[in-house]
Specification:
Layout: E1 2-6, H1 12-19, H2 30-39, E2 45-52, E3 55-65, E4 73-81, H3 90-104, E5 110-112, H4 119-127
């Protein structure tokens, strides 16, 4: 049975283990992970975890956004289910809880982005009722 809840700081190593399933093309560092977690604004950002037998098997990072001229919304910045649990309903359970939290805070819009090559993720989000509203390019520059 999957148990959903807000991240418990005592589970940081468990969360990092799941985080490592992100994408095999990246190299992640525990110290950067810890620093980002510590410096995160926990008033506007929630980390929701899914546990099975007291082990984290998935999580979502959701951030409350207030942009000039737009309704307040939550953005699901990260959603990750461990490789072993993909396709088992964990992702749906997490997204259902994200929606429940948003509704409880009177927020009616949830946004997320998904890389263009992640076609299985696109099918998943669309099966939950999410609509693709635009296609864009994402730019970065290290300074």
């Amino acid at each position: 049975m999957i148990e959903l809840g807000l991240f418990d700081p005592n589970d940081v190593e468990e969360l990092f283990k799941v985080f490592l399933d992100w994408d095999r093309g990246y190299t992640f560092h525990y110290d950067v992970f810890l620093r980002s977690l510590k410096e995160m604004d926990h008033k506007t950002t929630k980390i929701l975890t899914a546990k099975e037998n007291d082990s984290i098997v998935g999580y979502a990072q959701m951030t409350k956004c207030k942009n000039l001229g737009f309704e307040e919304y939550y953005e699901v910045v990260q959603l990750l289910v461990s490789e072993a649990h993909r396709g088992s309903g964990v992702g749906k359970a997490i997204m259902d809880e994200v929606e429940r939290i948003a509704i409880s805070e009177n927020i009616r819009i949830i946004k997320l982005s998904s890389r263009i090559q992640r076609s299985k993720a696109h099918v998943f989000y669309e099966s939950l009722g999410y609509e693709m509203i635009k296609v864009s390019k994402f730019y970065q520059k290290e300074v």
